[in-house]
Specification:
Chain A is α/β, with parallel strands linked by helices. Chain A folds into five domains: 91 residues, Ubiquitin-like (UB roll), CATH 3.10.20.740; 139 residues, Alpha-Beta Plaits, CATH 3.30.70; 177 residues, 3-Layer(aba) Sandwich (Rossmann fold), CATH 3.40.50; 120 residues, Dimethylsulfoxide Reductase, domain 2, CATH 3.40.228; 101 residues, Barwin-like endoglucanases (Beta Barrel). Chain A is built from 25 helices and 34 strands. Chain A has a seven-stranded mixed beta sheet with strand order 15-14-25-24-23-16-17, sandwiched between helices. Chain A has a six-stranded mixed beta sheet with strand order 30-32-31-34-29-33. With 204 residues, chain B is of the alpha+beta class. Among the domains of chain B are: 58 residues, Arc Repressor Mutant, subunit A; 80 residues, Glutaredoxin, CATH 3.40.30.10. In chain B, strands 2-1-3-4 form a four-stranded mixed beta sheet, with helices on one face. In chain B, strand 3 and strand 4 form a beta hairpin. The chains are: A alpha/beta (788), B alpha+beta (204). Chains A and B meet through strand 8 of A and helix 3 and helix 4 of B. The structure holds iron/sulfur cluster (2 copies) and FE2/S2 (inorganic) cluster (2 copies).
Chain lengths: 788, 204
């Protein structure tokens, strides 16, 4: 590197926020406003702590972090988690006085502690246990009777609370209030009786409850799925990425004796800040499910019967070989890794497959990636965030946490354009409700008001775009995103397609060719034009919004090959089912919604005979005389970096790093957005809104016993005035019908729903609303009739 | 189990209007609920949470901090006998024994007819009048066991209703703040003008 004088000068810029201080005699550079404990965490001197958590406000509850700071009247004791650094500050963490103070705190904290470590799940990874050894007096002067409470009480279906062990650090309660926005646990009572509690008989029903278990510094909070399963020293762990949704939270996967036992959140600064949602945290149970597919299955007269891999692959190759040219279709691929998607795309190319789509008509067209790309951090630091997305709390929970936090700290202003109140509505600067089909008018109006124009002119604007309503055509959203992108300056788009690796799959070759998307493929199949339909971890019968289309498509395919972890509604119709390795059973990389590539790690051996999807593609290619020249995962990764634009900087060693790397793949095809005129609804009808809840019948949830029961079940929600209009009582049954079909559902009043619309959660147990949806309709109008 | 009555909701809204943030009205509303039912019902806590915009758990957390709030039905008259130093020296222990005998309950208990709840209290700040007690937080000073008998007789015969309202009533005369003097529900940081009661004078 050549260095010139001017370069040198530029490098010696003094950070105006830098503060120099000493900790135990060593000089430390800190940032103005930082707490002493945070500065000390960058040195080798550890200050013990219980209540301090770098991602939450300091409260100074436990007083364990006392240190000595030189003051005008000599050294004084301060809590390092609430004392800011200062220029020239002299901090000591290891003097005798500090030691005595810290020992005293431990003695006090243990005064009421039951010391039941031998039967406590936290033992071995417990900050209280560890710091009682490292910073405690070793013995106690207390002989008095300790406080007694009923031993662990369930505070939700997932979390148990043992109040005897609690040291009242306020971490769980602070998390619930400050981070999750669900203050459903608080301190109750007073003095010696202070305890953490829910409202009597009301569960701690937060989508983020598992985080409190992870951050509790003692064994007071334990998670039902992990209780008494293992000791920390018996666990093996691998850093990985959650692939339950496309946020891509960093995790460690912990296993013992070849069984996954727990996920813990890892703090990735650009993504999840250490948090996980409960669905992502606890659905490892599905990997261990006894219902997993163990061997390949082949359809015979007596149904699907087990077969060997050799027979099943030969049979699959035979089917593929005999398919008419251009009559093979591939649906799915978004649930696997980048490597899986790429390998299948290679096989598809080799076989001349044009019909392919990683989505199931339930997302947005891949063109959404054609706009300037925003990251999660971009959204959380933009002047304005425009939400044209499903309820993020329900679909991409940790993204909700990030945006909620940014709005609460007044860092961003959220303008929400929605069909019904969402989790972010109460944090939005403006929430504009629209009737499906009329978003274009709402957006036009928004863009024309001076107040909004002023706001949008204040700096960068990030549009968070996703499929907010499954009973409405995706191009409605695309059209308004396009309007905003072309009229507002400094716009970028954060696409929020939900399936974990949908962005990776679409970028690596499983995007539709032209307009032949999943709906078109299923229509072609219904018309007898598909000889072989390959379902790559896809379940159209459960996920495609138009139930009738999915049924006709599945029925019309001459052969169906399913590669999946479970036998689901669709793979049950397959001619050949190949068992796939699940998350945690294979290595690879995944791409999150912002285009960030991180690794997923293998922690256990694949269940029974199951194999990673990429391996199946490679073997099939070989049988079909299209050798892909791939032997290992590394071969695929090398080929991806060599051949896929945007991925060229990728090497696994980089992706393994906690924060991964951002890739941006050039848009697949030019944007062609058509703007429809809004369709009018007649006054007797309701316009339908169908969207996902966090817990539904998705296989990973349904096969995890602790999550399955949390799905709310089917129902239709209307505004209380509309309920009156229908003449039905809350909870009674109503008939919901379009022009050709009807379903019967329980009805509920909800002020969150816009008048004139009806909200129905997607894929819930009970009657299936998808019976009323038609892919060809821009919007869906229904009548609701009281039948009781 | 009851929510606040319509009349109380109207009152509650007036109280909420006095504060810049609705949740500041939490404790006054808990008193209102206790006045209505003699204790704070579960439904009332849910209702108050709805009125001031916090979760039921937060209402519960705040309410349980205070010993004057009861979460189980108590007697119409809650008798708190002070047991702290001055009163103890002046015979409060004897008084308590006497009360227990007379009412047939232990401290902490409620008579089967629902008339009396007996409680042990810490210093009630009337040490010069020891031994003292409170009935529904109304003082009685320098009591002998005979005085206590008389008090219980009077209360049982409802002869003191003019002076001692049923448990939960904080004050018989309700404070009323005309709406123009209420701050109204406005976040303090958004207020630019000084409130009406400053009569245009700047704050100190
Ligand atoms: S339960 Fe755990 S996290 Fe919550 S206050 Fe107690 S010790 Fe802290
Ligand atoms: S938000 Fe998504 S990626 Fe994160 S833990 Fe939940 S399911 Fe997993
Ligand atoms: S860590 Fe500082 S007071 Fe608890
Ligand atoms: S000691 Fe009884 S009132 Fe103070």
């Amino acid at each position: 590197m050549s260095t010139t004088e001017s370069h040198n000068e530029a490098e010696i810029v003094v950070d105006p926020n830098a503060v120099s201080m000493t900790i135990n005699g060593k000089s430390v550079t800190a940032r103005k406003g930082e707490w002493i404990i945070a500065a000390a965490d960058r040195t080798e001197d550890f200050i013990p702590r219980f209540c301090y958590h770098p991602r939450m406000e300091s409260v100074g509850m436990c007083r364990q972090c006392l240190v000595e700071v030189e003051g005008p009247r000599g050294p004084m004791m301060v809590v390092s988690c609430m004392t800011p650094v200062a220029e020239g500050q002299v901090v000591r963490t290891d003097t005798d006085i500090v030691k005595r103070a810290q020992e005293g705190m431990i003695e006090l904290l243990l005064a009421n502690h039951p010391l039941d470590c031998p039967v406590c799940d936290k033992g071995g990874e417990c900050p209280l246990q560890d710091q009682a050894f490292s910073h405690g007096p070793g013995e106690s002067r207390y002989v008095e009777e300790k406080r007694h409470y009923e031993k662990p009480i369930p505070i939700s279906g997932l979390v148990f609370l043992d109040r005897e062990r609690c040291i009242l650090c306020d971490r769980c309660t602070r998390f619930a209030d400050e981070v999750a926005g669900d203050p459903l646990i608080t301190f109750t009572h007073r003095g010696n009786n202070t305890q953490v509690m829910t409202f009597p008989d009301e569960p701690f029903a937060s989508y983020f409850s598992g985080n409190t278990v992870q951050i509790c510094p003692v064994g007071a909070l334990t998670a039902e799925p992990y209780r008494f399963k293992a000791r920390p020293w018996d666990l093996q762990q691998q850093e990985s990425t959650c692939t339950t949704c496309s946020v891509g939270c960093r995790t460690v996967v912990q296993s013992s004796r070849d069984e996954i036992l727990r996920y813990q959140g890892v703090d990735s600064d650009p993504v999840n800040w250490g948090w996980l949602c409960d669905r992502g945290r606890f659905n490892f149970q599905s990997t261990n499910s006894p219902n997993r597919l163990s061997t390949p299955l082949i359809k015979t007269e007596s149904g699907l019967v087990a077969a060997s891999w050799t027979v099943a692959l030969d049979e699959t190759a035979r089917v593929l070989r005999h398919a008419q040219p251009g009559s093979i279709a591939i649906l799915g691929g978004a649930r696997g890794t980048n490597e899986d998607a790429w390998a299948w795309a290679q096989l598809a190319d080799a076989l001349g497959v044009d019909m392919r789509d990683a989505q199931l008509d339930d997302g947005l067209p891949a063109e959404i990636f054609g706009y300037p790309n925003a990251t999660i951090d971009d959204a959380c630091s933009a002047a304005t965030v425009i939400l044209l997305a499903p309820d993020l709390k329900e679909e991409l929970p940790v993204l909700y946490l990030r945006l909620r936090g940014a709005a609460e700290k007044k860092k961003i202003r959220i303008i929400e354009i929605t069909t019904h109140d969402s989790g972010l509505t109460r944090y939005a600067w403006k929430s504009l409700q629209y009737e499906p089909g009329h978003q274009a008018e709402t957006v036009q109006q928004m863009l024309s008001t001076p107040e909004m124009q002023e706001q949008l002119g204040r700096g960068s604007v990030v549009v968070v775009a996703g499929r907010s309503n499954l009973s409405e055509a995706a191009h409605h959203t695309m059209a308004v995103v396009d309007t905003i992108a072309t009229t507002v300056s400094q716009v970028s788009v954060l696409p929020v397609l939900r399936r974990a690796n949908v962005r990776g799959a679409l970028s690596l070759g499983l995007a539709p060719r032209g307009s032949t998307d999943a709906a078109a493929i299923l229509e072609a199949s219904a018309n007898g034009k598909v000889d072989c339909l390959i379902l790559l971890g896809a379940d159209p019968l459960s996920d495609v919004p138009d139930a009738d289309l999915a049924r006709r498509g599945i029925a019309g395919a001459r052969h169906i090959i399913a590669i999946d972890t479970f036998l689901n509604n669709s793979s049950a119709h397959a001619d050949i089912v190949l068992p796939a390795a699940a998350y945690g059973e294979k290595d690879g990389t995944t791409t999150n919604l912002e285009g960030r590539v991180t690794n997923v790690a293998q922690s256990i051996t694949p269940h029974a005979t199951s194999r990673p999807d990429w391996m199946i593609a490679v073997e099939l290619a070989a049988l079909l005389d299209h050798d892909l020249d791939i032997l290992t995962l590394q071969d695929i990764q090398t080929r991806i970096t060599q051949t896929v634009g945007g991925f060229d900087g990728l090497s696994v060693s980089v992706a393994v790093r906690k924060n991964g790397i951002l890739v941006s793949v050039p848009p697949i095809s030019p944007l062609q957005v058509h703007h429809d005129a809004a369709v009018k609804r007649n006054a007797y009808e309701f316009r339908l809104v169908v969207a996902r809840k966090l817990y539904d019948q998705a296989i990973g949830t349904a096969m995890s016993q602790s999550l399955a029961a949390l799905a709310p079940g089917a129902g239709v929600f209307v505004h209380p005035h509309d309920l009156e209009r229908v003449g039905a009582k809350d909870g009674s049954s109503v008939r919901v019908s379009n022009t050709t079909r009807s379903v019967i559902l329980p009805v509920h009043a909800s002020v969150a729903v816009t008048r004139g619309t009806a909200f129905v959660p997607f894929n819930q147990k009970g009657v299936d609303i998808r019976e009323l949806l038609q892919a060809t309709n821009g919007v869906t109008d229904v009548q609701i009739a009281n039948i009781s | 189990m009851s929510r606040l009555t319509d009349a109380h909701v109207a009152l509650a809204n007036e109280i909420i209007g006095r504060y810049p943030r609705p949740k500041s009205a939490l404790v006054p509303l808990l008193h209102l609920a206790q006045e209505q039912d003699g204790y704070i019902t579960r439904d009332a806590m849910v209702h108050i949470g709805e009125l001031v915009g916090v979760t039921s758990a937060e209402v519960y957390g705040t309410a349980t901090f205070y010993e004057m709030f009861k979460f189980e039905p108590v007697g119409k008259y809650v008798v708190n006998i002070c047991g702290t130093m001055s009163c103890a020296l002046m015979g409060s222990e004897e008084l308590m024994h006497h009360a227990e005998q007379r009412l047939g309950i232990k401290a902490g208990g409620t008579t089967p007819d629902g008339m009396f709840t007996l409680e042990h209290a810490e210093c009630q700040a009337a040490c010069t009048e020891a031994p003292c007690l409170q009935v529904n937080y109304r003082y009685r000073y320098r009591l002998t066991p005979a005085d206590l008998d008389e008090l219980i007789d009077d209360l049982s015969a409802e002869r003191l209703t003019h002076e001692i309202p049923p448990h939960g009533t904080v004050a018989k005369v309700r404070q009323h703040i005309p709406s123009h003097r209420g701050v109204g529900v406005v976040a303090p940081e958004l207020v630019t003008e000084s409130p009406a009661w400053l009569n245009g004078k700047a704050a100190l």
